[in-house]
Write a structure and sequence with these properties.
87 residues; mainly alpha
């Protein structure tokens, strides 16, 4: 099964500002966000979950280790590469 990866320009109107803010923060829109943009509520919830994760007592390095481990366990080479770069 394949899901469309939305851009800022072709995403539902409610998702465009969320994608724009992601691009401003990261310099690009991750494909996962582009897929989630099909459901503005899902994209908003996922981004909020990330914000809450950032508020935990874990350090930035520890959070990246959690994300790297999750990426590895989910066999997402793209995610492993991204979180390795961030770490």
């Amino acid at each position: 099964m394949s899901y469309p990866v939305h851009t800022i320009e072709n995403a539902p109107t409610e998702s465009q500002s969320q994608l724009s803010s992601t691009k401003a923060a990261l310099g690009f829109v991750p494909n996962l966000f582009g897929v989630m943009a099909a459901s503005p509520a899902l994209l908003k919830a996922y981004k909020r979950l990330g914000e809450l994760f950032d508020e935990t007592s874990l350090t930035a390095t520890e959070r990246q280790i959690v994300l790297l481990t999750t990426s590895f366990e989910n066999d997402c080479a793209y995610c492993v590469a991204a979180h390795t770069l961030i770490a």
